[in-house]
## 1
Amino acid sequence: MRQIIVLGLALTAVLAIPLTDEQKQKLSDVHGRCQNDPVTHIDDSIFEKLRKREHVELPSNFAAHELCMSKGVGLINEDGSVNKEMLRKSISHSGVEESKVEEIVNQCGENQETPEKTAIHLRKCLLKHAVQDHVAHHGHVHEHSHAHH
């Protein structure tokens, strides 16, 4: 269950969104679907290293996994484009100052050449903003608070 938190790098832990039991279950279900597909399966040791913020060589299918997760939680549409409304809602609920939400949506919600590149861009962009923001501290606490579930 701990690896589920890592997929939250771009989704919940970084945004520090408090999850209801229902949301945790959905996240777990999405992660399970992505892990059960050989194309998007990532070894659990990768998630463990990411969770610990250790340096890790990401496997070649990491972008496909990110895309699977982002689609599963609704941040990326089936056509591979960013769901800006869902992104806006997620960022708004994360504690980011309202005045910064649109700026982050515009930067992080840019579609890239491929859906996989879009998913990675979204993840990196959200991480960047979390580091520059107070959200990172909350995300770090949030991440550890659920690491034992």
Note: The helical segments are 2-7, 21-36, 44-51, 62-72, 84-92, 98-108, 115-131, 135-145.
## 2
Amino acid sequence: MPKSGPIALSRGGAVQWQHWRKEQQVQCVQKMGFPKVLLRALQNDVCFSVRDSHKYKMNNGHRGKALIFVHTDYEPALQLKRRRGSKTDVGRLQRCFSNLGFKVKTYNNLNINVLKHVLHETSQEDHSNRDCLAVTVLTHGEEGRLYAQNGSYPQELLWSPFTADRCPTLVGKPKLFFIQACRGPFMDSGVQMPVEKSKVFREANDNVDLGDEPSLFEVETDFLVAFATVYGYVSWKREGKISWFIEILCEELSEERSDHLLTILTDVQRRVADFSTTNPDDEELRDKKQIPCVTHRLKKLLYFNDSNYNNSN
């Protein structure tokens, strides 16, 4: 290890540090007694980089895993309608993630225990040579909860296995979650909606306080969750089959563009917000709106179209 190692860290010698070999950096971190999680992150090439420090490293050789959880049928006791059109949504997602370089795995109608098992097993894999993780869920939902085949579970169940202490090989790497589900009973009729009718929907469930949406993350970083709709409201499908959110998300992600992910998702929000429902048989279901909701703790910009990325492995 170079003699100036600790001095380089403590006195701002970041440029010198960057040009050391990885073995020299690891020896320095070990000698200085940094936490093991930090050491593991360094070994994965996600820490102590000055050059392009505003961008996530997206050329590890493998894009990563993309898990798709599809729920169409539920136990009768739950009294949930069968979700139609999921086959089209899933096909779009599979093609989209595959074209981005992800290794895609699709799971259908899992119960809660099996869902938890899949997430846990994925968190225990070695993601050292992967850029990121993507998880998509298509199901019914309500305030803060999603439905598996045999019951509901808190939405945090999806990302809690991938925190730094539980999944160290994803430390410093983006973990992306896309959720196509309703988040409550209310319907958005836009600015044209009379006050009286708005009051009807809110009074239908006066136990819901839209101002009390639970915080998604407290101390975790490098997470992004994109919901199809805002807290408390329903999400819609085109002609009852194709989800607005999934359709536009896949279109935007599939375009050859140099924008970072947050810009892409802003375009998704704008395009979905332009849609309105058309239901000739039920006036109450006409001209309803939807706006996706993106919550994130990303520290850097995420570019999928990195010119240095090699998908040959």
Note: The mean pLDDT is 77.
